[in-house]
Write a structure and sequence with these properties.
By secondary structure, this protein is α/β, with parallel strands linked by helices. Helices cover 45% and strands 11% of the residues. The protein is built from 17 helices and 7 strands. The strands form 2 sheets. A 5-stranded mixed β-sheet has the order 5-4-3-6-7. Strands 1-2 form a two-stranded antiparallel sheet. A hairpin with a 5-residue loop joins strand 4 and strand 5. Helix 5 crosses helix 6 and helix 8 crosses helix 16. The chain is elongated. The termini are far apart. The N terminus is likely disordered.
Length: 345
Amino acid sequence: MSVSSLSSLSDNERPSVCRRNLKKINAFEKYTDAEFRSRFRLSKETVLYLDSIFGKSIEPLTRRNRALSSKDQILIALRFYATGSYQRVIGDTFNVEQATVNRIVHRITSKIAELKSIYIKMPTEREYIGIANRFYSIAGFPRVVGAVDCTHIKINSPGGSNSELFRNRKGYFSLNVQVVCDSNLVIRNIIARWPGSVHDSTIFNDSPLCAQFERGDFGAMVLVGDSGYPCRPYLLTPLLNPRTHAEEAYNNAQIKTRNPIERLFGILKRRFPCLQVGMGLKLKNVPPVIVACAVLHNIALSQNDAVLEEDTDNITEESVDQPISIQSNQNFIVRTTLINTHFSF
């Protein structure tokens, strides 16, 4: 049949292949459970749970004479988090134009990020004992309510006179994101707005969380962090040069106890590769995606949706900050007392 003959046919008379290219894809039916999780990074059950949370607030979009349901839009956003790219292949997954994909990703990201106050929060006083006991079971380190660290999320150069502020010590542009987690890898606090050149300690010192600990909101509970943070009565760091068996025992326990935050970063970036490979987004649109991925991580944990164990590049977190070596002796009192009373044996 010639092209001219094709153009003279009505829509109903055209070969089905023309309509098949516009056929709506039902990802829940098209993919097996394993394929679905590999493609969208969450299980079908978790996606349905997300849809039950905020699906009713998402208006269907009509494109190419068909409607994109709330579930379709959630999957489009998840596909972006799995790739970090707006390439047309993402839109082609659902036969949607790239401009529509862009709009959907921002809409769904906003919806998920708005759940931060519900799914990301520091423990209450009633939770202290349980969380501290789970941390204690790792290496015998007492009174820990969270492990804190920062990780770098790659971004494009934001341009402008301040662009070099976003270049970190490894030489690439990034946001330096502070996270606190518990021993079960639940994210308890996140700050995703600082340029990559900013030191971890600066981010913590400026954070509302620091002010809360300074006020004594968490009682005798402490955080554990690496040597990029200042040692404080409520933030215990390793000794740079341990000299005694007690100090070595303290360091070994401290390092093991803060290991969950390192594991978390690897798991988070493996589940949502956009956090590892970077995102081709305007700078203002990157923090909401980071927060949305953190929220999704916690939701996945609550749904027993384990991270994929497929063979991917090993993701390791390397400290890019220099240790803080000059501090007031007053800051070391709690750490010294802990070493002498708990790790001297």
